[in-house]
Structure formats: structure tokens, C-alpha cells
Amino acid sequence: MTPGGLADYVWPYRAGGGSHAIYRNAVDCKHISEVNVLLNEIPAGGQVDVLLSPIHSLPSRKVELSNPRLQVGDNTITFPVCLQSGQYIELEQLDDCVLYDERGELIRRFRPQVDAAPRLVEGRNSLRFDCEPPQDASARAEVTVVSLGTSFGTRRDAGQIGWKYLNRQYDVPRIVTRIDGADNVWSIVRRADGPKGRQDGPPRIELEIKVEQLGPSEVEGEVPQLTTPVLTIGEASVGFPVKLLAGQRLLCRAQSHWRVLSADGEEVASGELSESLPTLVPGANRIAIGFEKVSSSDFRVVVKTAEVY
């Protein structure tokens, strides 16, 4: 049976549409109690003989590939990281290169070592992967290359678009682990087109800042906290006069009114900004998040933004 035929049969668990409980959750190899063999397509009233070879539990360990690099033609791009088993790198732009763990959680952002992003030439291209391999194990990696070209197709006429369903635009959440002018800086886009009367003015911005992780304070006896979050869009900045603790969320969905919720969802603080959130201009907008004081260098903040037209 091919993986695509999984949903064509009956199983003692949900398989239709994909079962996250089966293939998403990690297996703890130290605590496997049983192995099940499930059969399908046995004729009614019939029988089938099943032969199983011995099942052995083989030990495994993580290996590290140092400074992986990819050569495209005559151009080589080097990733100055140590890539462990299960981890992967995603590169979309030179300023957007990310290292993830085996669960898809962000480890850190970094800039690859190359003067210009490799480009494919017309016709056949030669690609070569290399790295500094582990001393007592083989070096294996899966490389996926996606080529992007000129956009194709045209948009429907404005009269055929259901604009009422497009009044809210969500941005990809940004995970921030450092305030270094790179990890805490990204772009969001304000669309420049829309029906007359619905999008004549700038959209309203909704903001959420969640402190997912906050390590011990660098000052002995001090409660770890992030003081006065500062949101910058373009050249305009606005600060929230509040101290965020681990697990808390800062919400601002009415341009100037903000509130802070605890991990249990209870409101612990609220207030009004002296001025509204900065206005987006049509097209790409540079956005940054910062804090007047960070008492712990070990933090993880998720920033969510949305535009309401």
C-alpha cells in the first residue's frame, strides 16, 4: 500500500484526511511497549498467512554536519552553523535564513556566507552539497531546491472579488530571540488595491506580543521581565509602559487601547497610548520590536500582527 492509499482502508484510528496523532507526534524510543501489525483486504470468511522476520531495536544517535554548503554552478553558499540530525535550514533570502529543530521550532536566524544569492541559469545546472562530516559517521543530507520565475496569471476583475471576506489580513507570526537589528526586524505588507470606499484610508493594525520563554534574570534577585515594548513601523515608534513577565500577552487591537493578559487569560494591566499605532504605507513596511530593558538574554517572544481594512 502506498501512503496515499491510507484513507482507503479501515483502521482502529482516524486516518481520513491525515491523523496527526499517528505521524506528527514524536516516538519515544525508550518506551515502546508493543508493535501492532494491522491487515486489510482479507477476503470475507477467508484467511491470510503473515510471515514476520525478527524485529530488532537498533540504537541511534545524533550526528553533526558542520558548515554545510551548497555549490550552484561556480557559486558556493556556506551556512555557518552546526546542523544536527533532524534539524533543517530554510533559505528564502540572504536576510531570511533560519535554522529549525526537528519539531519545526526556530533555533536562530543567521546570514549565510556568500556575496550574492546563487542563481540558476537557463538549461542544466550542476549542484553539489558538502560539509565538514562527523569523524565516525557518514554525512547524509536531503537538499530541496525550489526555482522561482516570473509570476503568471491575472487577477479577477474587482467586481468579481468578494472584498467583504478580505477585510482582515494576517501576517506570519515573528519569533524574536535577540534584539540585534536583524532577528527583531522584518517586513509586513499593506495591499495597495481594493474597492473604492472600502480601502481609501490606511488599515487598522492589531498587535499581540507573547512572552513564550524568559530565562533567569541577569541581576540576582530580580524577577525576569521585558520592560516597555517598543513597536517601530517605518520611522515611527510607540512604546507600551508595561513590564511583561513569562507567559504574558500584550494585546492592542483598538489603535491606542492596550491590555496585558496572564497565562491564565486574566487581565493584569491596561492603559491608553499617548498616540495611535503607526500607519502603514502601501507596499512593504519595515517593522521592528524592541524593549527599553531586557533582564534576561534567554527569551523567546512571538509577535503577531494583522491589518483590518
Q: Would you write up a description of this structure?
A:
- The chain is mostly beta strands.
- Helices cover 1% and strands 37% of the residues.
- It is built from one helix and 19 strands.
- The chain has one helix spanning 20-23; strands spanning 64-72, 75-78, 82-84, 88-93, 96-100, 106-110, 127-132, 168-170, 174-176, 185-190, 204-214, 226-233, 236-239, 243-244, 249-254, 257-261, 267-272, 283-294, 299-308.
- A hairpin with a 2-residue loop joins strand 1 and strand 2 (75-78).
- The protein is globular and about 75 Å long.
- The model has no long low-confidence stretch (mean pLDDT 88).
Short account of what is shown:
The protein is an all-beta fold.
Q: Could you give the order of the helices and strands?
A: HEEEEEEEEEEEEEEEEEEE
Low-confidence stretches: none
Q: Give the distance, in angstroms, between the N- and C-terminal Cα atoms.
A: 49 Å
Proportion in β-strands: 35-45%
- Please give the share of residues in helix: under 10%
- Taking Cα atoms only, what radius of gyration do you get, to the nearest Å? 26 Å
Q: Specify the structural class.
A: mainly beta
Number of strands: 19
Overall pLDDT level = 88
What count of helical segments does DSSP give? 1
Biggest pleated-sheet summary: 7 strands, antiparallel
Overall, the morphology is: globular
